Amino acid sequence: MAWDRIRKTPQDRAGACLDDYDGCVTSFSWTQARALLDGLPKDGLNISYEAVDRHVRAGRGGKLALRWIGRDDEIRDFSYADLAAQTNRFANVLKRFGVSKGDRVYSLLGRSPELYVAALGALKNGSVFSPLFSAFGPEPIKARMAIGGARVLITSEAFYLRKVEPWRRELDSLEVVLLTECSANPPAGTEDLGAAMAAASDAFETVWTAPEDMALLHFTSGTTGRPKGAVHVHDAVVAHHVTGRYALDLHADDIFWCTADPGWITGTSYGIVSPLTNAATMIVDQAEFDAERWYRILQDQKVTVWYTAPTAIRMLMKLGADIPKRFDLSSLRLIASVGEPLNPEGVAWGMEAFGKPIHDNWWQTETGGIMISNFRSMDVKPGSMGRPLPGITAGIVERRNGEICEITKPMAMGELALRPGWPSMMRAYLHEEERYRKCFAGGWYLTGDLAMRDGEGYYWFVGRSDDVIKSAGHLIGPFEVESALMEHPAVAEVGVIGLPDPAAGEMVKAYVALKSGIEASEALRKELLGHARKRLGPAVAPKDIAFRQNLPKTRSGKIMRRLLKARELGLPEGDISTLESEER
Ligand code: WT7
Questions:
Q1: How far lies 298's CA from each of 31, 111, 308, 448, 526, in Å?
Q2: Partner of 200 at 20 to 30 A CA spacing, among 90, 274, 332, 460?
Q3: pLDDT tens digits, 424-464
């Protein structure tokens, strides 16, 4: 059944954190939002304090903060008091190694309890935390640790040996490596995290941090160049907190499951910080996606708010709406999705499978938190991302004669832009002043996404304005993939694009021109796929490679990815006036 609007009843609105959108937008101020948190003496603010210790101080220490479900179904529970004690221990471990305020602490871990303890413990120590996705291969890891000047790395012994040790000598800044799942004799230059934790005290005073002190470093990808380190400060917690309330309707008695991995910003902002500042109970599943398992978790853990992604929804859809009906999912109050377009079919499927719409929302690594959302109290228009959060001014803009102009005509396409000034906005791309500055013009932050706004103020996603690829919800920079393939001795040129894929949204495909005298063959194709996978890891590596004699290039020698894509998909080639003549 198709829906053009899913109406919300007074019942749907009852008890919603945001029950009156227009009223809330009018009365909202970031100053008031900040007052919902405790802060530290002398106008200080620390994310970890607000997420954990604040609740212990207020007598809520016994409350379940984190329920961790292991791959083998083992359950480990952490109350707020347990989390406080564990993060204190971790902060003491850092202190013992002389790691202090501003130092960069990286993690390369699956969704293990240590990841959550390390994130919050590092912040408590005033250090900057940067989580890396565990499916990255050595190249993306090395690039990100080098850019951020990693001083500490928390990882497993297996990851260390495979993904870090081979190049460690090249990164002078890396002084401390703490290992989980560590053998009796840790490799040279590493320490057993478990032993260090056991030896540490569980008392620690949160290091004083100012709201503008750097807290989190999340990497994102552009079309060209190295990954960009988006710098977020402790003040971001104000946005994490209120957007969790407004967009995800988080209440203190909620059981919240964010399925994103903390290696990506959704898994940190909403998979760690937001549920904890809101004193909810969060579920963490160590295992990878599995439809039956997910329904079972929703049922057994009595999840009330579920934050997931279109990729997962598509996979669930593929298996049909009968399976969820075999489970008791009556605890579910709100389902939300983020990361890629959620098409109207996905929303309709939510109605069929759960009797509830899936609430799409939109944001980016740069924005640090949800900016546009469908709210529990508001009608859902399937296919729309919803409306701007209170405190957020969005617009559709275009460049006219070099000036940025707002387009107010309903459903006219332009670039989605936001008025800067909310607390979780990135403060910099680390060491990339110029790239950061280019994101702003005419008093707007330009998102790089194309969108439209309808007469009721709902936003509709159209596409990206650049060549960046979104695969399984993960942003992949084509340049990073091209660079890894270029390292192979047989390769002369590479262009990497995303092609539509029914499951992943987009699939990474590489077009390779070989050096003269080298024959294209199936064996070489496999070798290149293997090479890329080894260097980049399965999350980033191309799924397919095609050989070409030549790649379409501009006269200045830049590979025209857009044209590769148009040709592959049989679409109009658009403006090819800059194409090199012999290629036409
Ligand atoms: C890009 C940001 C999702 C936040 C954390 C990951 C795309 C995001 C939607 C949506 C269509 C979406 C945009 C955006 N995107 N949400 N609801 N509908 N597209 O952030 O990895 O920095 O990716 O994801 O293109 O710019 P990210």
A1: 36, 18, 12, 35, 40
A2: 274
A3: 999 999 999 999 999 999 999 999 999 999 999 999 999 99
Higher pLDDT residue, 557 or 316? 316
Q: Which stretches within 420-512 are classed as H helix? A: 433-437, 478-486
According to the 3-state scheme, what is the secondary structure of 249-278? CCCCCCEEEECCCCCCHHHHHHHHHHHHHC
pLDDT in tens, 64-76: 999 999 999 999 9
β-bridge partners, 476: 469
Mean pLDDT for the chain?
A: 96
CA 268–ligand 1 middle distance (angstroms): 15
Q: Is the pLDDT of residue 581 over 60?
A: no
Instruction: List own/partner pairs for 183-186 with CB under 8 A and 24 or more apart.
Output: 183/157, 186/157
Question: What 3 state SS string does 316-380 have?
Answer: HHHCCCHHHHCCCCCCCCEEEEECCCCCHHHHHHHHHHHCCCEEEEECCCCCCCCCEECCCCCCE
pLDDT, residue 584, reads 43
Q: Which atom of ligand 1 lies closest to the CA of 342?
A: 18
Span 477-494, mean pLDDT?
A: 94
Q: What is the pLDDT of residue 313?
A: 96
Q: Which fold has domain 466-581?
A: GMP Synthetase; Chain A, domain 3 (3.30.300)
457 class by beta-carbon count within 10 Å (0-12 exposed, 13-18 middle, 19+ buried): middle
Answer yes or no: is the C-beta of 362 below 6 A from any ligand 1 atom: yes
For ligand 1, atom 20, which residue shows the shortest CA distance? Answer: 364
Global pTM?
A: 0.95
Pocket flag, ligand 1, residue 475 (CB < 6 Å): yes
Ligand 1 pocket mutation pick from 470, 474, 480, 506 by most atoms within 8 angstroms of CB: 470
360 lines ligand 1 (CB under 6 A): yes
pLDDT band at 1 (very low <50, low <70, confident <90, very high): low
Please tell me the class of the 10-453 domain: alpha beta
User: Which residue intervals of the chain bear CATH 3.40.50.12780?
Assistant: 10-453
Grade residue 224 by pLDDT with cuts at 50, 70 and 90: confident
CA distance 59 to 10: 34
